[in-house]
Amino acid sequence: MKIKWLIINLITLIIACSFTCFSLLAKPKSSFPDFPIDKKATKQTVNLYHNLKSLQKKGIMFGHQDDLAYGVGWKYVPGKSDVKEVTGDYPAVYGFELGRLELDHAVNLDGVPFDSMRSYIQQIYERGGITTLSWHLNNPLTGKTAWDPAEGTVKSILPGGEKNDLYKTWLDKVAVFILSLKGNKGEPIPIIFRPFHELNGNWFWWGKDHCTPEEFKQLWHFTISYLMDTKNIHQLLYAYNTDRFLSTEDYLLKYPGDEWTDVIGFDIYQRKGGDEGNTEFIKDVDNMLTMLEEIAIQKNKIPALTEFGYAQVPDRTWWTNVLYKALGNHQISYALAWRSAGFKPSGEAEYYLPFKGQVSEKDFIKFYQKPNMIFQKKVTKQQLYK
Ligand code: BMA
Fold first, then answer.
1. What's the predicted TM-score (pTM) here?
2. 25 C-alpha to center of ligand 1: Å?
3. What mean pLDDT comes out for the span 255-265?
Protein backbone atom coordinates (compact mmCIF):
# COMPACT_ATOMS: atom_id res chain seq x y z
CA MET A 1 0.00 0.00 0.00
CA LYS A 2 2.78 2.35 1.06
CA ILE A 3 4.81 1.53 -2.11
CA LYS A 4 1.77 2.12 -4.33
CA TRP A 5 1.26 5.48 -2.65
CA LEU A 6 4.92 6.35 -3.16
CA ILE A 7 4.79 5.42 -6.87
CA ILE A 8 1.67 7.54 -7.44
CA ASN A 9 3.35 10.48 -5.75
CA LEU A 10 6.49 9.99 -7.79
CA ILE A 11 4.54 9.90 -11.06
CA THR A 12 2.63 13.03 -10.08
CA LEU A 13 5.91 14.75 -9.28
CA ILE A 14 7.44 13.76 -12.63
CA ILE A 15 4.37 14.99 -14.53
CA ALA A 16 4.38 18.29 -12.62
CA CYS A 17 8.11 18.82 -13.23
CA SER A 18 7.88 18.03 -16.93
CA PHE A 19 4.99 20.42 -17.26
CA THR A 20 6.90 23.21 -15.51
CA CYS A 21 10.05 22.53 -17.55
CA PHE A 22 8.05 22.45 -20.76
CA SER A 23 6.29 25.73 -20.05
CA LEU A 24 9.60 27.35 -19.11
CA LEU A 25 11.30 26.09 -22.25
CA ALA A 26 8.35 26.95 -24.46
CA LYS A 27 8.74 30.65 -23.52
CA PRO A 28 5.19 31.56 -24.37
CA LYS A 29 4.85 34.32 -26.91
CA SER A 30 3.11 37.43 -25.73
CA SER A 31 -0.55 37.92 -26.43
CA PHE A 32 0.13 41.65 -26.56
CA PRO A 33 -1.33 42.89 -29.84
CA ASP A 34 0.92 43.73 -32.78
CA PHE A 35 0.19 47.43 -32.51
CA PRO A 36 1.76 50.52 -30.90
CA ILE A 37 0.70 51.16 -27.31
CA ASP A 38 -0.99 54.32 -28.57
CA LYS A 39 -4.25 53.02 -29.99
CA LYS A 40 -4.69 56.30 -31.85
CA ALA A 41 -1.20 56.22 -33.38
CA THR A 42 -1.10 57.90 -36.81
CA LYS A 43 -1.00 55.79 -39.95
CA GLN A 44 2.73 56.47 -40.50
CA THR A 45 3.51 55.58 -36.87
CA VAL A 46 1.64 52.29 -37.13
CA ASN A 47 3.45 51.54 -40.41
CA LEU A 48 6.79 52.35 -38.82
CA TYR A 49 5.99 50.02 -35.92
CA HIS A 50 5.17 47.10 -38.24
CA ASN A 51 8.14 47.77 -40.50
CA LEU A 52 10.52 47.93 -37.54
CA LYS A 53 9.30 44.51 -36.50
CA SER A 54 9.80 42.95 -39.91
CA LEU A 55 13.11 44.69 -40.66
CA GLN A 56 14.53 43.37 -37.40
CA LYS A 57 14.60 39.92 -38.99
CA LYS A 58 16.73 41.17 -41.90
CA GLY A 59 19.36 43.28 -40.21
CA ILE A 60 20.31 45.96 -37.72
CA MET A 61 19.89 49.65 -38.49
CA PHE A 62 22.86 51.81 -37.59
CA GLY A 63 22.27 55.04 -35.69
CA HIS A 64 24.25 58.04 -34.49
CA GLN A 65 23.41 60.77 -31.99
CA ASP A 66 23.47 64.34 -33.39
CA ASP A 67 24.92 63.01 -36.66
CA LEU A 68 23.83 65.95 -38.84
CA ALA A 69 24.58 68.69 -36.32
CA TYR A 70 28.32 68.30 -35.78
CA GLY A 71 31.25 65.90 -35.81
CA VAL A 72 34.92 65.98 -35.03
CA GLY A 73 36.28 69.33 -36.21
CA TRP A 74 33.05 70.74 -37.66
CA LYS A 75 29.68 72.13 -36.61
CA TYR A 76 26.42 72.89 -38.42
CA VAL A 77 27.54 72.32 -42.03
CA PRO A 78 24.40 71.54 -44.07
CA GLY A 79 24.36 67.94 -45.34
CA LYS A 80 27.56 66.99 -43.52
CA SER A 81 27.89 63.87 -41.39
CA ASP A 82 30.96 61.96 -40.15
CA VAL A 83 29.25 58.71 -41.09
CA LYS A 84 28.70 59.97 -44.63
CA GLU A 85 32.25 61.33 -44.93
CA VAL A 86 33.62 57.88 -44.12
CA THR A 87 31.10 55.52 -45.78
CA GLY A 88 29.39 57.67 -48.42
CA ASP A 89 26.07 56.96 -46.71
CA TYR A 90 24.08 58.44 -43.84
CA PRO A 91 22.98 56.43 -40.79
CA ALA A 92 19.50 54.89 -40.81
CA VAL A 93 18.66 56.12 -37.30
CA TYR A 94 19.46 59.49 -35.74
CA GLY A 95 19.30 60.46 -32.10
CA PHE A 96 18.62 64.01 -30.92
CA GLU A 97 18.36 65.43 -27.45
CA LEU A 98 15.65 67.64 -25.92
CA GLY A 99 17.39 68.79 -22.71
CA ARG A 100 16.74 72.52 -22.03
CA LEU A 101 13.63 72.61 -24.21
CA GLU A 102 11.81 72.56 -20.88
CA LEU A 103 13.51 75.86 -20.00
CA ASP A 104 12.46 77.59 -23.21
CA HIS A 105 16.05 77.73 -24.41
CA ALA A 106 16.64 78.05 -28.14
CA VAL A 107 19.50 75.53 -28.03
CA ASN A 108 19.75 72.20 -26.21
CA LEU A 109 22.29 71.33 -23.52
CA ASP A 110 24.82 70.39 -26.18
CA GLY A 111 24.33 73.60 -28.14
CA VAL A 112 22.05 72.26 -30.90
CA PRO A 113 19.39 74.83 -31.88
CA PHE A 114 15.90 73.33 -31.67
CA ASP A 115 14.99 74.96 -35.00
CA SER A 116 17.90 73.16 -36.70
CA MET A 117 16.89 69.93 -34.97
CA ARG A 118 13.39 70.24 -36.40
CA SER A 119 14.75 70.71 -39.88
CA TYR A 120 17.16 67.73 -39.52
CA ILE A 121 14.26 65.56 -38.38
CA GLN A 122 12.23 66.64 -41.42
CA GLN A 123 15.12 65.84 -43.80
CA ILE A 124 15.64 62.46 -42.14
CA TYR A 125 11.96 61.59 -42.44
CA GLU A 126 11.75 62.68 -46.07
CA ARG A 127 14.58 60.35 -46.99
CA GLY A 128 13.10 57.48 -45.01
CA GLY A 129 15.29 57.48 -41.90
CA ILE A 130 14.23 57.35 -38.26
CA THR A 131 14.63 59.81 -35.39
CA THR A 132 14.78 58.93 -31.72
CA LEU A 133 14.66 61.62 -29.02
CA SER A 134 16.22 61.49 -25.56
CA TRP A 135 15.62 64.04 -22.82
CA HIS A 136 18.23 64.94 -20.18
CA LEU A 137 15.72 67.22 -18.51
CA ASN A 138 16.85 69.39 -15.63
CA ASN A 139 15.98 68.48 -12.08
CA PRO A 140 12.55 70.11 -11.59
CA LEU A 141 12.91 70.15 -7.80
CA THR A 142 16.30 71.85 -7.51
CA GLY A 143 16.59 73.59 -10.87
CA LYS A 144 19.99 71.94 -11.37
CA THR A 145 20.86 69.52 -14.17
CA ALA A 146 19.63 65.99 -14.89
CA TRP A 147 22.72 64.78 -13.02
CA ASP A 148 21.49 66.23 -9.71
CA PRO A 149 19.96 63.23 -7.96
CA ALA A 150 18.28 65.18 -5.16
CA GLU A 151 16.15 63.03 -2.92
CA GLY A 152 12.42 63.07 -3.61
CA THR A 153 12.56 64.61 -7.09
CA VAL A 154 10.46 61.93 -8.79
CA LYS A 155 7.88 62.05 -6.03
CA SER A 156 7.69 65.83 -6.25
CA ILE A 157 6.55 65.79 -9.88
CA LEU A 158 3.92 63.06 -9.58
CA PRO A 159 0.27 64.17 -9.27
CA GLY A 160 -0.16 65.72 -5.83
CA GLY A 161 3.54 66.61 -5.63
CA GLU A 162 4.77 70.19 -5.23
CA LYS A 163 6.39 70.23 -8.69
CA ASN A 164 3.69 68.45 -10.68
CA ASP A 165 2.39 71.70 -12.16
CA LEU A 166 5.89 72.75 -13.17
CA TYR A 167 6.53 69.33 -14.74
CA LYS A 168 3.31 69.66 -16.74
CA THR A 169 4.51 72.97 -18.17
CA TRP A 170 7.73 71.18 -19.23
CA LEU A 171 5.73 68.45 -20.92
CA ASP A 172 3.64 71.15 -22.62
CA LYS A 173 6.85 72.49 -24.20
CA VAL A 174 7.96 69.05 -25.34
CA ALA A 175 4.48 68.58 -26.81
CA VAL A 176 4.68 71.84 -28.78
CA PHE A 177 8.01 70.75 -30.28
CA ILE A 178 6.86 67.24 -31.14
CA LEU A 179 3.63 68.48 -32.68
CA SER A 180 5.68 70.84 -34.84
CA LEU A 181 7.47 67.89 -36.47
CA LYS A 182 5.61 67.51 -39.73
CA GLY A 183 6.36 66.03 -43.12
CA ASN A 184 5.91 67.75 -46.50
CA LYS A 185 2.22 66.94 -46.57
CA GLY A 186 1.65 68.18 -43.05
CA GLU A 187 1.57 64.67 -41.58
CA PRO A 188 3.05 64.18 -38.08
CA ILE A 189 6.54 62.66 -38.24
CA PRO A 190 6.82 59.45 -36.20
CA ILE A 191 9.50 59.54 -33.51
CA ILE A 192 10.89 57.01 -31.03
CA PHE A 193 10.81 58.83 -27.69
CA ARG A 194 13.05 57.43 -24.93
CA PRO A 195 12.66 59.48 -21.78
CA PHE A 196 14.23 58.57 -18.41
CA HIS A 197 16.95 56.46 -19.98
CA GLU A 198 19.57 54.53 -17.98
CA LEU A 199 17.04 54.36 -15.16
CA ASN A 200 18.99 51.67 -13.29
CA GLY A 201 22.10 53.83 -13.00
CA ASN A 202 22.50 56.26 -10.13
CA TRP A 203 23.58 59.37 -12.04
CA PHE A 204 20.23 60.90 -13.05
CA TRP A 205 17.55 62.12 -10.65
CA TRP A 206 15.16 59.43 -11.94
CA GLY A 207 17.85 56.75 -11.36
CA LYS A 208 18.17 53.60 -9.33
CA ASP A 209 18.19 54.68 -5.68
CA HIS A 210 16.37 57.96 -6.20
CA CYS A 211 12.86 56.55 -6.57
CA THR A 212 11.01 53.33 -5.83
CA PRO A 213 9.86 51.03 -8.66
CA GLU A 214 6.32 52.21 -7.96
CA GLU A 215 7.29 55.89 -8.23
CA PHE A 216 9.18 55.27 -11.45
CA LYS A 217 6.24 53.45 -12.98
CA GLN A 218 3.91 56.27 -11.93
CA LEU A 219 6.27 58.80 -13.49
CA TRP A 220 6.28 56.82 -16.73
CA HIS A 221 2.52 56.35 -16.80
CA PHE A 222 1.86 59.98 -15.98
CA THR A 223 4.28 61.25 -18.64
CA ILE A 224 3.07 59.00 -21.42
CA SER A 225 -0.63 59.52 -20.76
CA TYR A 226 -0.11 63.27 -20.50
CA LEU A 227 1.53 63.36 -23.92
CA MET A 228 -0.89 60.89 -25.48
CA ASP A 229 -4.23 61.79 -23.93
CA THR A 230 -3.91 65.37 -22.70
CA LYS A 231 -1.70 66.71 -25.50
CA ASN A 232 -3.13 64.44 -28.19
CA ILE A 233 0.23 63.36 -29.54
CA HIS A 234 -0.08 60.22 -31.65
CA GLN A 235 3.19 60.11 -33.53
CA LEU A 236 5.35 58.55 -30.82
CA LEU A 237 6.66 55.08 -30.18
CA TYR A 238 7.97 54.85 -26.63
CA ALA A 239 11.27 53.28 -25.59
CA TYR A 240 12.07 51.98 -22.10
CA ASN A 241 15.81 51.72 -21.66
CA THR A 242 18.17 50.77 -18.88
CA ASP A 243 21.94 50.88 -18.61
CA ARG A 244 23.89 47.58 -18.25
CA PHE A 245 21.83 44.96 -16.39
CA LEU A 246 22.46 41.59 -14.76
CA SER A 247 19.34 39.53 -15.29
CA THR A 248 15.85 39.61 -16.70
CA GLU A 249 14.51 40.44 -13.23
CA ASP A 250 16.99 43.28 -12.91
CA TYR A 251 15.96 44.62 -16.33
CA LEU A 252 12.27 44.48 -15.48
CA LEU A 253 12.47 45.87 -11.95
CA LYS A 254 10.93 49.20 -12.96
CA TYR A 255 9.38 48.11 -16.26
CA PRO A 256 6.20 50.16 -16.61
CA GLY A 257 4.09 47.40 -18.20
CA ASP A 258 3.40 46.01 -21.67
CA GLU A 259 0.77 48.66 -22.36
CA TRP A 260 3.34 51.40 -21.75
CA THR A 261 6.26 50.80 -24.07
CA ASP A 262 6.90 49.81 -27.68
CA VAL A 263 10.68 49.55 -27.77
CA ILE A 264 12.92 48.05 -25.10
CA GLY A 265 16.64 48.66 -24.99
CA PHE A 266 19.76 49.27 -22.97
CA ASP A 267 22.85 51.48 -23.17
CA ILE A 268 26.36 50.09 -22.97
CA TYR A 269 29.87 51.52 -23.28
CA GLN A 270 33.23 49.77 -23.51
CA ARG A 271 35.45 51.22 -20.79
CA LYS A 272 38.41 48.85 -20.82
CA GLY A 273 40.83 48.53 -23.75
CA GLY A 274 43.00 45.72 -25.05
CA ASP A 275 42.10 42.11 -25.74
CA GLU A 276 40.65 41.70 -22.28
CA GLY A 277 38.40 44.72 -22.63
CA ASN A 278 37.29 43.63 -26.09
CA THR A 279 36.46 40.09 -24.98
CA GLU A 280 34.55 41.36 -21.98
CA PHE A 281 32.55 43.81 -24.09
CA ILE A 282 31.61 41.14 -26.63
CA LYS A 283 30.51 38.79 -23.84
CA ASP A 284 28.51 41.46 -21.98
CA VAL A 285 26.71 42.78 -25.05
CA ASP A 286 25.96 39.27 -26.24
CA ASN A 287 24.54 38.23 -22.84
CA MET A 288 22.42 41.32 -22.50
CA LEU A 289 21.12 41.12 -26.07
CA THR A 290 20.16 37.49 -25.47
CA MET A 291 18.13 38.48 -22.40
CA LEU A 292 16.65 41.50 -24.16
CA GLU A 293 15.52 39.46 -27.16
CA GLU A 294 13.92 36.92 -24.88
CA ILE A 295 11.98 39.66 -23.07
CA ALA A 296 11.06 41.22 -26.42
CA ILE A 297 9.59 37.94 -27.68
CA GLN A 298 7.71 37.34 -24.45
CA LYS A 299 6.29 40.84 -24.38
CA ASN A 300 6.01 41.47 -28.11
CA LYS A 301 8.29 44.53 -28.02
CA ILE A 302 10.94 45.88 -30.36
CA PRO A 303 14.47 45.32 -28.99
CA ALA A 304 17.24 47.86 -29.64
CA LEU A 305 20.71 48.84 -28.49
CA THR A 306 19.62 52.35 -27.61
CA GLU A 307 23.16 53.73 -27.02
CA PHE A 308 26.65 52.29 -27.32
CA GLY A 309 30.20 53.47 -27.67
CA TYR A 310 33.89 53.04 -27.10
CA ALA A 311 35.34 56.49 -26.44
CA GLN A 312 37.64 57.66 -29.25
CA VAL A 313 37.57 54.11 -30.76
CA PRO A 314 41.32 53.57 -30.24
CA ASP A 315 41.25 50.05 -31.66
CA ARG A 316 41.79 49.85 -35.48
CA THR A 317 39.52 46.85 -35.95
CA TRP A 318 36.95 47.52 -33.26
CA TRP A 319 34.00 47.62 -35.65
CA THR A 320 34.39 44.22 -37.26
CA ASN A 321 36.33 42.52 -34.52
CA VAL A 322 34.43 43.66 -31.48
CA LEU A 323 31.10 45.38 -32.17
CA TYR A 324 30.12 43.16 -35.09
CA LYS A 325 30.95 40.06 -33.07
CA ALA A 326 29.00 41.40 -30.09
CA LEU A 327 25.94 41.99 -32.27
CA GLY A 328 26.38 38.47 -33.65
CA ASN A 329 23.20 36.93 -34.91
CA HIS A 330 21.00 38.98 -32.65
CA GLN A 331 17.80 40.26 -34.16
CA ILE A 332 17.45 43.77 -32.86
CA SER A 333 16.03 46.82 -34.55
CA TYR A 334 18.87 49.29 -34.27
CA ALA A 335 22.13 50.20 -32.53
CA LEU A 336 22.84 53.88 -31.88
CA ALA A 337 26.37 55.22 -31.40
CA TRP A 338 26.68 58.18 -29.04
CA ARG A 339 27.60 61.67 -30.16
CA SER A 340 30.88 62.78 -31.70
CA ALA A 341 31.14 66.04 -29.83
CA GLY A 342 34.71 66.59 -31.01
CA PHE A 343 37.23 68.65 -29.11
CA LYS A 344 35.89 70.43 -26.06
CA PRO A 345 37.34 73.73 -24.74
CA SER A 346 39.28 71.64 -22.21
CA GLY A 347 41.16 70.05 -25.14
CA GLU A 348 39.55 66.69 -24.38
CA ALA A 349 37.81 64.95 -27.27
CA GLU A 350 34.52 63.04 -27.15
CA TYR A 351 33.64 60.83 -30.14
CA TYR A 352 32.39 57.32 -30.72
CA LEU A 353 32.64 57.07 -34.50
CA PRO A 354 35.53 57.43 -36.91
CA PHE A 355 36.01 60.51 -39.06
CA LYS A 356 38.38 60.97 -42.00
CA GLY A 357 41.85 59.93 -40.87
CA GLN A 358 40.75 58.32 -37.57
CA VAL A 359 42.40 54.94 -36.82
CA SER A 360 39.26 52.83 -37.18
CA GLU A 361 38.07 54.50 -40.41
CA LYS A 362 38.85 51.61 -42.78
CA ASP A 363 37.39 49.03 -40.47
CA PHE A 364 34.19 51.05 -40.15
CA ILE A 365 33.83 50.84 -43.95
CA LYS A 366 34.11 47.04 -43.71
CA PHE A 367 31.48 47.09 -40.98
CA TYR A 368 29.27 49.29 -43.16
CA GLN A 369 29.56 46.77 -46.00
CA LYS A 370 28.27 43.83 -43.94
CA PRO A 371 25.06 42.59 -45.58
CA ASN A 372 23.04 42.81 -42.37
CA MET A 373 24.09 46.35 -41.45
CA ILE A 374 21.46 48.85 -42.51
CA PHE A 375 22.33 52.46 -43.25
CA GLN A 376 20.32 55.13 -45.08
CA LYS A 377 20.48 53.78 -48.65
CA LYS A 378 19.06 50.43 -47.62
CA VAL A 379 16.50 51.87 -45.27
CA THR A 380 15.13 54.30 -47.85
CA LYS A 381 14.17 51.31 -50.00
CA GLN A 382 12.22 49.82 -47.10
CA GLN A 383 9.70 52.71 -47.09
CA LEU A 384 9.25 52.39 -43.36
CA TYR A 385 6.34 54.83 -43.20
CA LYS A 386 4.22 53.08 -45.84
C1 BMA B 1 26.56 62.71 -22.25
C2 BMA B 1 27.76 63.46 -22.80
C3 BMA B 1 27.54 64.92 -22.49
C4 BMA B 1 26.18 65.38 -23.04
C5 BMA B 1 25.05 64.46 -22.58
C6 BMA B 1 23.72 64.81 -23.19
O7 BMA B 1 26.72 61.33 -22.43
O8 BMA B 1 27.87 63.27 -24.19
O9 BMA B 1 28.57 65.67 -23.08
O10 BMA B 1 25.91 66.68 -22.63
O11 BMA B 1 25.38 63.13 -22.89
O12 BMA B 1 23.69 64.67 -24.59
1. 0.93
2. 41
3. 98
